[in-house]
Hints:
By secondary structure, the chain is an all-alpha fold. It is 83% helix and 0% strand.
Amino acid sequence: MRELLGAFFIILAIPFFLSGTIGLLRLPDIYTRLHALTKADNVGLGFIVFGLAIQATSWLEVVKLFLIWFLVLMASATSCHLIADAALRRNIKPWTKE
Length: 98
């Protein structure tokens, strides 16, 4: 039963990764692309970590998985901020409906 529940959460992550990729390809400017990609990928990774944690055989594995997720969340937020800041410094304006 644990394997099925874990697989369910891992499969549940697929639409989030897919929507992040579609957002990266289809949204109009760098700021909305960054938002779509970081949010969707972080939620998708959360579902994968949760699914793997359910299937884990020891608490040490669970701690490692959540530590990895936390570090990816921090790196994702930091890199997103740095990219957006660099875009603002180069005077790349946010998209507006004209």
